[in-house]
Recover the amino acids of this structure.
């Protein structure tokens, strides 16, 4: 394996590793009150902030800080220890990671959407207390009960389904959006019936379709390119543009979303999730905090897919064999 190959692979896997380490540290900070990696700078005197008096916080912060170089080191060692792997092989592995995350997210929004809409329907029509009792009905009216005891088991079920079902299922989600919108029209204009949960369900599924399918669309080169020069480039030059663009434009966008959206508990992604925020529309669905999480899923899947695209671009630039052909219906 030549030097350029393992360095490029190490760089790509470093991007992937740091992405997941950042998400893991964010979960530790928000969900488990960890001090955060930035506190390490105060420990060594490189920050104006006060060093923690609790030695345990200092140890945790040090652990979080060094998790990033540890991830980079692991990426380098993996690249060195697997000399037979190609750039395109690693790119395919990264795409597999992205697809698994998207499959889990897809099944989660389908199952949670149907189940939560059903609960909202039963609540607004007064049937829920008859079926499950007054106490459980009251608990289901609180997001801090419905999310951990009703939504989260459905996420676990979605993980199990995603390990067996390999298709992404975007066309089915699109069909569900059309059906749910059609039901709104029929119930509104034929039966003069409309409730908040109906509109919540459409927005919930539409937001998921738009944000979850972005990484797959990137893989299939389906995003609209507004360009004058790219179409006329050779495959080698297109590979260079894709590789450089994936890092300078794509990866920086994803990290901008993750940093500003998950920097602390008050950030625009963390705050709704930490507070299990729901809409104020009476008996609507309890999924607003999940929609904030859609942005995190978008950023993570796109970051991993941009790393994959970078490796593919370098392989195209070098003229490596095995170039993946993009279908004409997907490319725009």
């Amino acid at each position: 394996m030549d030097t350029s190959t393992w360095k490029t692979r190490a760089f790509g896997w470093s991007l992937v590793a740091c992405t997941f380490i950042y998400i893991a540290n964010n979960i530790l900070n928000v969900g488990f009150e960890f001090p955060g990696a930035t506190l390490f700078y105060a420990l060594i005197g490189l920050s104006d902030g006060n060093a923690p008096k609790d030695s345990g916080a200092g140890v945790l912060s040090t652990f979080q800080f060094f998790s990033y170089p540890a991830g980079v080191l692991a990426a380098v060692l993996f690249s060195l220890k697997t000399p037979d792997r190609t750039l395109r092989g690693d790119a395919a592995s990264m795409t597999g990671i992205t697809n698994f995350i998207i499959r889990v997210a897809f099944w989660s929004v389908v199952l949670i959407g149907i189940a939560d809409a059903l609960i909202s329907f039963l609540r607004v029509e007064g049937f829920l207390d008859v079926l499950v009792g007054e106490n459980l009905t009251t608990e289901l009216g609180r997001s801090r009960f419905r999310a951990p005891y009703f939504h989260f088991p459905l996420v676990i079920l979605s993980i199990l389904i995603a390990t067996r079902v390999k298709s992404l299922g975007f066309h089915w989600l699109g069909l569900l959006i059309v059906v749910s919108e059609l039901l709104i029209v029929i119930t509104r204009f034929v039966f003069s019936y409309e409730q908040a949960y109906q509109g919540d369900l459409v927005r919930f599924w539409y937001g998921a379709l738009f944000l979850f399918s972005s990484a797959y669309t990137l893989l299939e080169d389906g995003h609209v390119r507004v360009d004058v020069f790219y179409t006329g480039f050779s495959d080698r030059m297109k590979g260079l543009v894709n590789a450089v663009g994936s890092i300078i434009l794509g990866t920086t966008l994803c990290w901008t979303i993750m940093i500003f959206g998950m920097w602390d508990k008050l950030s625009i992604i963390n705050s709704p999730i930490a507070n299990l925020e729901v809409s104020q529309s009476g008996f609507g669905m309890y999924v607003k905090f999940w929609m904030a999480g859609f942005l995190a899923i978008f950023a993570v899947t796109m970051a991993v897919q941009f790393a994959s695209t970078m490796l593919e671009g370098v392989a195209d630039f070098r003229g490596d064999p095995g170039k993946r052909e993009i279908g004409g219906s997907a490319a725009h």
In short: Residues 1-85 form one domain. Residues 328-332 have pLDDT under 50 and may be disordered. The chain has two domains: 1-85, 87-318. Residues 208 and 294 are 7 Å apart (CA to CA).
